[in-house]
Design goal:
The structure holds three protein chains of three kinds.
Chain A: H1 2-15, H2 17-35, H3 41-52, H4 57-82, H5 91-139, H6 144-155, H7 158-161, H8 166-180, E1 183-184, E2 191-192, H9 206-224, H10 244-266, H11 272-286, H12 298-314, H13 316-322, H14 328-339, H15 348-351, H16 353-374, H17 378-381, H18 389-408, H19 412-429, H20 435-457, H21 463-466, H22 469-493
Helix pairs in contact in A: 1-16, 2-3, 2-4, 2-16, 3-4, 3-14, 4-5, 4-12, 4-16, 5-10, 5-12, 5-13, 5-16, 6-20, 6-22, 8-20, 9-18, 9-19, 10-11, 10-12, 11-12
Chain B: H1 3-23, H2 37-54, H3 68-91, H4 93-107, H5 113-134
Chain C: H1 2-19, E1 38-42, H2 49-64, E2 71-75, H3 82-91, E3 96-101, H4 102-109, E4 121-136, H5 144-153, E5 160-162, H6 169-181, E6 190-192, H7 199-203, E7 209-213, H8 216-223, E8 227-232, E9 259-266, H9 272-287, H10 289-298, E10 301-305, H11 307-328
Parallel strand pairs in C: 1-2, 1-3, 5-6, 5-7
Antiparallel strand pairs in C: 3-9, 4-7, 4-8, 4-9, 4-10
The chains are: A mainly alpha, B mainly alpha, C alpha/beta.
């Protein structure tokens, strides 16, 4: 009954005039920052900290939360239109969002992204409200062995991400894994493969690689084909209306990945980026026609979009009810909370019910506002594609470089960006898929770290993996996902 | 030599170099799996995969092909990007970005110089003011006094 | 085509040449005042510890008008600080100062940077928090001594978690205690949980001991009855009501104090007048009510040190920590 009163109190806060105003400001700023390439949730929240100074903590947090999910919502736009992801968590959105826009259906792609984000965010907020008290337990239930098994399950998708040769997909993945070993090793403090260059010590930023391999490689392709007549249909935005059939197609992935994204978001070691990749590969494996993925599949767009937004909402569980930040973004959010004088932890829900429930309740309004804000704007935003091609190419190049520059404020990363752009083009020409590279880069670090942690803790005993039902189940799933597609292939051949 | 064989040789060499670099990593005594554990496995994987690729017959039609004319324009764009990187900090964000957008669009064949000038000025100025004034993210000011 | 290209290149070069005319030759007297806006460098990303610290300090300075010039934060992340320090040393401008903490000492001892702590100028220390050793509430040990005795007897039973890599704060403080307790280094298994600082794997029972800092996360878990804090590595008991009940390691017979100090540094070669100017500003910050409120929110203790005292303090920190790092084979 106690939490019921809290929820009522929360709704009162969220639906007050001030509450709605701060949600609106938050999601508006979040969307604007998110749309800009290279600027993602971390920057969005960091720049808001000084602004919230001295504000009422509840309203400030309501606004910050709006900035957070608003920026994730917004960053899918540039992924879809220009193949330049604004944040790590929307890299998976480019896989099918960009091909869809290239087919002349940019309007539809943006509408699906908006609706999927809305569904993911809203469903996750409902879960948050219904189960918040028990979710804290789930958040700490994962140890290193479980994380390792989960990452391994993600890695087994490599073969399903390849279009042609699987040797090429595996090579691409190994190269991606090698790239993430550059930098200080978390378990020993040893600096690996940095060749004495301090710029490599903290590793290569994921966005540098994603923008290089996808955006720059794509620009090269655009330059070569800049006079191609067939490109004219791309500036065709298409209708933003979805047919009944479209809705039917995306309703499955949206319901699945609201749940999956939310669960992965709750785990403090994972976060929105991993959730989006996991959802993409899961959806592809479930699909009856996986060959459509990567070529503009509606499912392939809806899955990661739903998941990212559900995960970012889910990440409020460890943040608010444990005081544990699970990712770079929530670490910044935790700092922001401390500035506001809020001490997140197990007691927050009982000591500050109106703040705790107010933030959750505000997420409903925030997501509705985002949808209302974004849908009517789509035709205008998509006009970007009508910009004459040579000018658009220059602007995309500038946006990529600006996005990378503001990550580290050094030109070193810009040279790296250029390097990965060239690598991306060469890989594309030689038919090496870039997606396995990216996937291995995203999951590799956690896979290695947790594997080593698990064995250190067990003093080298492998029973840490085999004696635990959750781990065992995840490992079996990984095994199945490698074996089943091959069986199918063998069957087809016979 | 087939294209797959040509690709496999640099990959093989990369694997060998990576393995050697892994072996040379400093040792840390108080851990079960040291920093070189995973790299050695990865290097080994790449070694095996490059050998497999050598004898593989798939995707033989793949190649890096850029027509002479395209090679020239891509070379120029890459050179422009390099210039942009070199001059970004000394010249400042606004000037170098404006020059980059104008020149790059021009060289790619955009001949509406008036629109080009307007865009290449407005774009960096808007972003610069937005970033430095409202988002408190510093971009290189360079020679400009603001 | 080639002509256009040459034209462009020469334009770039010309413009760059123009930008480098205004080199400042300052006339140093006993009084020094900044002539331009101050750059406060955070050698880390937006949102990290050094960044937050830089932002709150410059906020206080701006709002309380402790400086005539404005002050702005810029981020120079990379190399656990090394990129930022290289930037500071390259421009060598007394208008550019930076935030720092204990992490700098560990990063430099690990050989991440070509610079050493005394290549640059310590200006003032402003705040500190302390290391802690924690276990789960249902754990059998009620004091640090009990824990360490059991550890010594059955080292294979134990795993310690922290948020820093080996050779970082959380690791070195535990090693220091363990060495005092007579535990063999090879008996200690330590894991780094970089994303969440080790708290989740302590709570779910994966590890037995948490070596961390006294931040809000730990205090809130203590208040909720989830963990026990066996020792705070401060000289004396802390004063604030919420944390005064935690026993120190010193009172349990261990001579180990681990302070996570946070201060402000300048480039090398600053004049006495410049140091004095900044030291005075930082003293005003430290004494302001606004900063006192911030200290409370972040759970930092007051710990002001002027340049001279600060320099001597860091010298001792480097000395004691480098012994442990050498023992671990991590000194570079």
């Amino acid at each position: 009954m106690n939490s019921f009163n809290g929820i009522i109190e929360g709704f009162q806060v969220a639906f007050s005039l001030e509450g709605m105003l701060f949600v609106a400001i938050g999601v508006l700023i979040g969307t604007v920052i998110g749309i800009m390439p290279g600027l993602g949730p971390i920057t969005a929240i960091a720049v808001m900290i000084p602004i919230t100074y001295g504000m009422d903590a509840t309203f400030a947090l309501v606004m910050m939360a709006g900035v957070y999910y608003g920026s994730i919502f917004g960053s899918s736009t540039s992924s879809i239109l220009l193949n330049t992801p604004g944040a790590a968590s929307t890299v998976a959105t480019t896989f099918d969002g960009y091909p869809l826009a290239q087919r002349g259906e940019a309007g539809k792609a943006l509408a699906i992204a908006a609706i999927a984000s809305f569904v993911g965010g809203t469903v996750a907020a409902i879960f948050l409200m219904l189960f918040a008290p028990i979710l804290a337990g789930l958040a700490v239930s994962f140890g290193p062995a479980e994380y390792f098994a989960l990452m391994l399950l993600g890695m087994t998708a490599i073969s399903s991400l390849s279009e042609g040769s699987s040797i090429r997909a595996f090579i691409s993945a190994v190269l991606g894994f090698m790239a993430v070993t550059i930098g200080i090793d978390s378990q020993t403090g040893t600096s690996r493969f940095t060749f004495g260059n301090v710029n490599f010590l903290e590793g290569i930023d994921f966005l540098v690689i994603a923008l290089g391999l996808f955006a720059l490689a794509e620009v090269t392709y655009l330059i070569i084909n800049r006079r191609d007549r067939s490109f004219e249909k791309i500036s065709n935005i298409g209708s933003i209306r979805l047919s009944k059939k479209d809705f039917k197609e995306i309703s499955g992935p949206m319901s699945r990945h609201s749940v999956l994204g939310f669960i992965i978001g709750i785990l403090p070691g994972a976060g929105a980026t991993i959730a989006s990749f996991m959802s993409y590969v899961t959806e592809k494996r479930l699909s009856k026609n996986p060959e459509e993925f990567g070529k503009g599949s509606l499912k392939g767009l809806a899955a990661p979009e739903t998941s990212t937004n559900a995960a970012s909402t889910g990440s409020f569980v460890p943040l608010l009810s444990l005081g544990i930040p699970g990712s770079g973004t929530t670490a910044v959010l935790l700092g922001a909370l401390l500035v506001l004088g809020v001490q997140p932890g197990p007691l927050l829900v009982s000591e500050e019910p109106s703040l705790f429930w107010g933030v959750i309740a505000s997420m409903y309004i925030g997501n509705i506002m985002l949808l209302i804000l974004n849908l009517p704007l789509i035709p205008y935003i998509a006009k970007v594609l009508k910009i004459p091609r040579p000018l658009l190419i220059s602007l995309v190049l500038t946006l990529c470089m600006m996005g990378v520059y503001v990550i580290s404020f050094s030109t070193f990363d810009l040279y790296l960006l250029l390097f990965f752009g060239v690598l991306g083009y060469v890989m594309k020409s030689l038919r090496f898929p870039a997606a396995p590279f990216i996937l291995a880069f995203v999951l590799g670090n956690l896979l290695e770290e947790n594997f080593r942690m698990a064995l250190t803790i067990s003093n080298g005993s492998w029973m840490v993996f085999l004696g635990n039902p959750v781990v065992l189940a995840l490992l079996l799933l990984s095994l199945l996902s490698i074996v089943l597609p091959n069986l199918r292939r063998v069957k087809k051949k016979i | 030599m087939t294209i797959n064989q040509k690709i496999s040789i640099p990959l093989f060499l990369l694997a060998v170099a990576y393995i050697i670099a892994s072996i040379l990593l400093p040792k840390y005594d108080y851990i079960l799996i040291d920093a070189d554990g995973f790299p050695l496995i990865l290097g080994g994987f790449l070694l095996v995969l490059s050998v497999l690729l050598f004898f593989n017959k798939e995707e033989e039609d793949a190649r890096v092909f850029i027509a002479r004319e395209d090679l020239k324009i891509i070379g120029i764009v890459v050179a422009l990007i390099l210039l942009y990187i070199v001059f970004l900090e000394p010249l400042g964000f606004v000037i170098s970005t404006a020059l980059f957008i104008f020149i790059c669009s021009f060289l790619l064949g955009y001949r509406n110089n008036i629109v080009n000038s307007i865009v290449s000025l407005l774009f960096p100025i808007t972003f610069y003011l937005l970033f430095t004034r409202y988002l408190m993210i510093s971009l290189p000011a360079g020679v400009l006094p603001f | 085509m080639r002509k256009i290209f040459i034209l462009i290149v020469s334009m770039f070069i010309l413009l760059t040449a123009c930008s480098q005319t205004a080199s400042t030759v300052s006339n140093e007297d006993k009084e020094w005042k900044p002539k331009r806006p101050i750059e406060m460098v955070a050698p880390a990303r937006a949102g990290g510890g050094w960044d937050t610290f830089a932002r709150v300090i410059s906020n206080v300075i701006m709002e309380q008008e402790f400086m005539e010039q404005s002050i702005g934060v810029i981020n120079k992340p990379g190399g656990t600080g090394a990129v930022g320090w290289a930037y500071i040393q390259k421009i060598q401008d007394p208008h550019t100062i930076f935030t720092t903490s204990t992490t700098m000492v560990f990063s430099m001892l690990a050989g991440n940077s070509q610079y050493s702590w005394d290549d640059m100028t310590p200006i003032a220390n402003l705040a500190a928090d302390y290391g802690i050793i924690a276990v789960r509430e249902d754990a059998p040990w009620d004091s640090l001594t009990e824990l360490m005795d059991d550890f010594k007897e059955n080292p294979e039973k134990f795993t310690v978690a922290g948020g820093n890599t080996p050779g970082g704060f959380d690791h070195v403080q535990f090693i220091s205690l363990a060495m005092e307790a007579g535990i063999q280094l090879e008996d200690i298994s330590y894991v780094t949980d970089q994303s969440s600082g080790g708290l989740p794997i302590l709570l779910n029972g994966t590890v037995d001991v948490l070596s961390s800092k006294l931040g809000s996360g730990v205090v809130e878990q203590y208040r909720a009855g989830e963990i026990k804090i066996l020792a705070v590595l401060s000289e004396e008991r802390l004063e604030a009501d919420s944390v005064s009940q935690f026993p120190t390691a010193v009172e349990q017979g261990y001579d180990t104090v681990f302070i996570n100090w946070r201060g402000v540094y300048g480039p090398g070669g600053m004049t006495e007048a410049q140091v004095a100017y900044y030291e005075d500003v930082m003293r005003q910050v430290s004494e302001s009510d606004q900063f006192a409120a911030i200290r409370d929110q972040f759970g930092w203790e007051e710990m002001f040190m002027g340049s001279e005292e600060y320099t001597e303090f860091i010298r001792q920190e480097v000395e004691s920590n480098s012994k442990i790092m050498e023992e671990l084979g991590l000194l570079n």
